[in-house]
Amino acid sequence: MSKSDAKYPILYTFRRCPYAMRARMALWSSGVTVELREIVLGRKPAALLEASPKGTVPVLVGSGTYPLIEQSLEIMIWALEQDDPEGWLLPDRNASLQLISENDTSFKKNLDRYKYPERFEGASAPEARDAALDFLRTLEETLKASQGPFLLGSRFTLVDAAIFPFIRQFANVDDTWFEALPLPRLQSWLALCLETELFERIMEKFKEWKPESECLLWGRLVKDRA
Prior knowledge:
By secondary structure, the protein is an alpha+beta fold. It has two domains: 10-87 and 200-218, Glutaredoxin (3-Layer(aba) Sandwich); 93-154 and 157-195, Glutathione S-transferase Yfyf (Class Pi), Chain A, domain 2 (Up-down Bundle). It is built from nine helices and four strands; from the N terminus they run βαβαβαααααααβ. It has a four-stranded mixed sheet, covered by helices on one side. Helix 5 packs across helix 8. It is globular and about 50 Å long.
C-alpha cells in the first residue's frame, strides 16, 4: 500500500476528541472509506495546517470529487448522504438538529468549564456542572417521549451519534456523581451506546501519523489494512 491513496479522502482525527468520534461513527456507518491520519494535538502536522489552518479535528480533506469539510457535523451528514444503510437520517431531522445544536453550544460550553475550569477565567466547575444539568434533563425527557432506548425511538441514529461522545465525556469527569443523578433513561442510554460494536470499532487505537507513514485505509468496508 502506498504512503497515500488519492482515491480516498483523508480524515485527520484524534481518538478521544468527541467531535472526531462522532465523525468516525457516521463514516463507519455509511461505509465511506477514508485514509485515516491519527494526530497528536500538541504536534499538529504541517499537512493538516496547510489543508485547514484552523488546526482542529476532524478534518476531511477532499481528493478528486470529494470536498474539504472542516466541521464534524458536516462530515457526518455528508457521509450519510453518500450512503445511509442504517437509516440514520430517516427520523425527524429537525428534531435531531435542534438537540445537536443545544449540545454543541450551551452544553459544550458548560462541559468545558466543568472539565477544564483552569482554562477559563472565573470558571467554577460545580456551577458549570449544575448548569449542564438542564440539557441532561432535556435528554431524559426526550428519551421518555421516544418510547425507545434511543433519542428518537428504537434505533441509534444521527442524533445519538452526535451527542453521545459529549455525554460520555461529561460522565467521565465524575462517574460516581453522574450515576447518582435521577436520570435513569439517560444513564441507560449512555451505557447502551458504550456497549455498541460501533463504539468499539471507532475507538480502535492507531499510531500517530507522520509524513513517512504508510497509508492507512479505514472504514467498515475495508478488508485489509496496512
